[in-house]
Structures are given as C-alpha cells and as structure tokens.
From TrEMBL:
<dbReference type="InterPro" id="IPR042505">
    <property type="entry name" value="DYNC2I1"/>
</dbReference>
<dbReference type="GO" id="GO:0005929">
    <property type="term" value="C:cilium"/>
</dbReference>
<dbReference type="InterPro" id="IPR036322">
    <property type="entry name" value="WD40_repeat_dom_sf"/>
</dbReference>
<dbReference type="GO" id="GO:0005868">
    <property type="term" value="C:cytoplasmic dynein complex"/>
</dbReference>
<dbReference type="GO" id="GO:0045503">
    <property type="term" value="F:dynein light chain binding"/>
</dbReference>
<protein>
    <submittedName>
        <fullName>WDR60 protein</fullName>
    </submittedName>
</protein>
<dbReference type="GO" id="GO:0045504">
    <property type="term" value="F:dynein heavy chain binding"/>
</dbReference>
<dbReference type="GO" id="GO:0042073">
    <property type="term" value="P:intraciliary transport"/>
</dbReference>
Length: 112
C-alpha cells in the first residue's frame, strides 16, 4: 500500500531485496514477472504508472516508467510464450471503463 516492493527467497521470512518508495508512495495494484525474461518484472501503481524493472540492468531503480494518461488502469497482466525465443511479450491493461488495451514490450525487456 505504500509503494514498497520486496523480493523474498522461499527459505527466509526476510526480504532478499527491498525497494522503498519505488512509486513515490502510490499503492501498487499489480505486479508480475515477465514470462520470457526472468530478471524483468512490471509493477502498476494506483496512478496508472507502469514501472519496468530489469534486475540485470539496474537493481536499484526501475529502468523505465510509462504513464497511462487517458484513463485509469485498474489491473494488468502479461502475455507471452516463454517456450519460444521470439521475445514477444505483451502487457494487457484493463481500464476503468472496461476497455482492454494490449501493448507490446520492447525486445530488450522481452528476449530470454
């Protein structure tokens, strides 16, 4: 609820890594690992900002942020085929009106 993200190992109750205030205090409403690239995850905050984290490129801050200004995004999920090396990765965004938007991710964050 405060925008903090914690990465845990299954063998410990304490976080392995923790990022405080990564969304400037906005609650995170969805977070998902990339299906095609294990070091990448996406977070959606309550202000419809999408943060892309690539832990191999930078483990301190998100590598990109995209604001969805037209309408509030209420949730997201990712689509892709991890068994294929084509690097196709999409973000499915559900908007407050019920409209669904699919956007494709740059290859550098999608390739295995």
């Amino acid at each position: 609820s405060d925008g903090s993200i914690r990465l845990h190992q299954m063998t410990s109750e304490y976080p392995f890594l923790q990022w405080n205030g990564s969304t400037k205090g906005q609650p995170i409403i969805a977070l998902q690992w990339a299906l095609t690239r294990p070091a990448v995850f996406f977070a959606l905050d309550a202000s419809s900002n999408i943060y892309i984290w690539d832990l191999l490129e930078n483990d301190l801050l998100p590598v990109a942020k995209q604001t969805m200004p037209s309408e509030r995004v209420v949730t997201m999920t990712l689509l892709g085929e991890p068994e294929k090396a084509n690097g196709l990765l999409g973000i499915v965004l559900a908007k407050e009106s019920g409209q669904i938007d699919i956007q494709y991710v740059k290859k550098k964050w999608a390739l295995p």
